[in-house]
Amino acid sequence: MPSLDDVTRPPGRPPRILYGGDWNPEQWPEETWTEDVRLMRRAGVTSVTLGVFSWARIEPSPGKREFDWLDRLMDLTHTHGIGVVLATPTSSPPPWMGRLHPETLPRDEDGRTEWWGSRQHFSHSSEVYRQYAASITEDLAARYAGHPALTMWHINNEYCTYDWGDEAARTFRRWLQDRYGTLDALNTAWGTDFWSQRYGDWAEVLPPRRAHYLKNPAHVLDFRRYTSDQLLACYRAERDIVRRHTPDLPVTTNFMPFWSGQDGWTWAAEEDLVSVDVYPDPRDPGSAAYNAMIGDLTRSQAGGGPWMVMEQAAGAVNWRGVNHPKPYGLNRLWALQAIAHGADAVCYFQWRQSRQGAEKFHSGMLGHAGERGRVFQETVRIGEDLARLGPRVAGSRVTTGIAVLHDWNSWWAGDQEGALSRRVDHAEIVGAWHRALWDAHLPASFAHPHHDLGCHRLVLVPHLYLLDDTAIDNLVAYVRGGGTLVCGFLTGIADQDDRVRPGGMDARLCELLGIDLLQEWWPLDEGEHVDCGTFRGTLWSEELIAAPGAETVAAYRGGELDGLPAVLRNGRARYLTTLPEPAALSRLLSAVAEEAGVRPVVDGLPADVEAVRRGDLLFLLRHGHDPVTVTLPGRHRDLLTGTEIAGALKLERYGVAVLEVSGAQVPEPADAGTREEHGPGARPVPEGRR
Ligand code: GLA
Fold first, then answer.
1. Residue 143 and residue 132: Cα distance in Å, rounded?
2. Cα(335)–Cα(310) distance, integer angstroms
3. Where is the composition biased (Basic and acidic residues) (predicted)?
4. H or E element at residue 541
5. Could you tell me the distance, in angstroms and rounded to a whole number, from the CA of residue 456 to the centre of ligand 1?
6. pLDDT tens, 525-569?
7. Catalytically annotated residue among 114, 167, 238, 311
């Protein structure tokens, strides 16, 4: 399998970063297409994604095919040297499908139908839908397999649907039969003897529909696992069809960022290239750190190799309560931030802003203001920057010494109606820990709890409520092997069936973390804090007795937990029974990182200046409004401006510098940590032809 760049780069040209976006030209008269490609060339666009929502155009009535317009577009892009990421249009079936085959429409938890008139109104379990999807994918792939513009496949779009309908009930039962074999095993796994839920016949097992009171959490957990697997089966079916026609082209599907609906590790392993859509709020001061986290997670899902921003917005989106544009420079900053975190492609939704339809107020690379508009001017500027960086950046890797563990199964299990605190949110806690690292200028990667962790100096477990035996053994082996581990509260409370471990926490973990007895959980209200001596804890606290030999690094002061451990240390393993306030968490993790031999990429950086080392380049990104000066040892050349930097570097508002550095002057994080590599569950962007 070739790398992204291998297939998208014209022969004889140096490596480059893919740049472009979704192009939905069926909205426009054909004269506009010619204008579009002219402007794309001006902006340095190298790739467009066609066909994402084109099903009704290609198949206006059942079985009919209209490809002529798409033929002309494929030829046009090729003539202008622009590659095509061709999407299967299966995320938005034409209205005729719902009318003729109502069973293709999904049902919500209350049994209500999701009708056509928007998009993504397909039941992942509908045989009819799957047959139509396979058929159009087959014809699309057969028609364009040899087309010179075709560089890559994009399957469906942001798989994210749920279905509680009758056909889903049948496939849910089949999925459960595969998992458990017998109804007895299912009854045991779900603990159905509580509340008289015991099933006597498979026909009684339903998706977790609207019910009177709390649902069985193990049932809901399996429904989420099943939904992820059902959608994955839809993806696989289409992927296998396109692979048959074009075995040399990479296949992807665009993830929503840090989205709970799909098990991202399992999905990523099924893709040739991992891609994600990222839409941070330009007004949110946390957006830069959020982008960094999405970049780190996506790169890690790609096994540490290059990944792709499939979509972002050049300006405002139109789905928040209030939608703010990006001030000039912010689009460029975030595009280059993605590159710093390992992306080899920066693309947008969408090329030309729509004049009609649901997203006419959503920005495009070419906005309503047109060629003279500042959004387009920035589009051109980003194209120039990417062209400069491509030959030096494409294909290179980001190295980190820290791994943050994350698992969708644990997210799903922890997110249950009967939890002790609705305020405990997996994504927020993971975000808080990653943010604490980001604030300390410590680059990090993500890993699954089953991955080989030995290559990381420091492993963090912000919130893995569910840990199976393999994961627990992996953590124990990691620390025994010399690794440094920090676990957050509620680590490993439940097994794979969401059954609370005997004693409230697994005995192997208690031993590892230095816990003698876990007495009670004491969740905290909004605005409530616990005094931990040198810092304040939020969200949660725990009443536990330390095992002999474990050190209470910080203790609660006052209240019911007075004197009990807030932070417990047992050798190289630590356990946090609360969530320290942001600055304290950042200090704590920095101190542990230093002890583990992991240092910031650059020392003494001002706040809101991010430093990321990618290959032999150092990206410095100014996430703030005022200019700042950064002091660096030695002399460096800025690839973006071609200027020599000696000593001090001034970064303007939203400024970026990409410096060539020698290892001695700015140490590669690998000096202090190790290159990230994952075990099973993720795989790198393949490099050779399949
Ligand atoms: C998603 C979709 C796009 C578009 C954008 C708008 O990412 O994939 O089609 O709707 O949202 O932000």
1. 17
2. 11
3. 673-690
4. strand 540-546
5. 35
6. 999 999 999 999 999 999 999 999 999 999 999 999 999 999 999
7. 311
Closest atom of ligand 1 to 277 CA is 7
415 lines ligand 1 (CB under 6 A): no
Tell which one of 359, 360, 363, 365 to mutate to probe ligand 1, the residue whose CB is within 8 A of the most ligand atoms. 359
Between the CA of 348 and the centroid of ligand 1 the distance, in Å, is 9
Confidence class for position 663, pLDDT limits 50, 70, 90? low
From edge to edge, which strands make up the β-sheet containing 530-531? Answer: 530-531, 536-538, 579-580
Ligand 1 atom nearest to CA at 358: 10
158 lines ligand 1 (CB under 6 A): yes
Ligand 1 atom closest to Cα of 279? 12
**pLDDT tens sequence across 524-537:** 999 999 999 999 99
35: helix, coil or strand? Answer: helix
Distance 362 CA to ligand 1 centre (A): 9
pTM: 0.96
Could you tell me how far CA 533 lies from the centroid of its own chain?
A: 36
Does ligand 1 lie within 6 Å of residue 277's CB atom? Answer: yes
Residue 319 CA: which ligand 1 atom is closest? 12
Annotated catalytic residue, options 59, 158, 378, 610? 158
Tokens read off for 373: 């508009």
pLDDT at res. 666: 54
- Model confidence pLDDT, tens digit, residues 334-362: 999 999 999 999 999 999 999 999 999 99
By the 8 A CB rule, do 15 and 396 touch? no
Q: Whose CA is nearest to atom 4 of ligand 1?
A: 349
The Cβ of residue 483 has, within 10 Å, a number of other Cβ atoms equal to 20
595 part of the active site: no
With 0-12 / 13-18 / 19 or more C-beta atoms within 10 angstroms meaning exposed / middle / buried, residue 319 is exposed
The residues that bridge with 618 in the sheet, in sequence order, are: 613, 659
Is the C-beta atom of 349 inside 6 A of ligand 1?
yes
Distance 315 CA to ligand 1 centre (A): 13
- Over the stretch 309-319, which tens digit does the pLDDT of each residue have? 999 999 999 99
Local confidence band at 8 (pLDDT 50, 70, 90 cut-offs): low
* 216 contacts: CB under 8 Å, gap ≥ 6: 190, 191, 192, 194, 195, 197, 208
- CB of 317 sitting under 6 A from ligand 1: yes
Active site residue 158: yes
Q: How remote is the CA of residue 98 from the centroid of ligand 1, in Å?
A: 22
Domains of the chain: residue spans and CATH = 4-161+249-393 (3.20.20.80), 402-595 (3.40.50.880), 609-661 (2.60.40.1180)
State the distance from the centre of ligand 1 to the C-alpha of 278, rounded, in angstroms: 9
pLDDT at 634 over 90: no
Handedness of CA 209, 210, 211, 213 (dihedral sign): positive
Question: Does residue 368 have a pLDDT over 60?
Answer: yes
* pLDDT at 586 > cutoff 70: yes
Mean pLDDT (the chain, rounded): 94
**How far from chain centre, in Å, is Cα 350?**
20
The arithmetic mean of pLDDT across residues 674-679, rounded, is: 41
Which residues have CB under 8 Å from 578's CB, separation 6+? 489, 524, 530, 532, 537, 538, 539, 540, 541, 542, 566
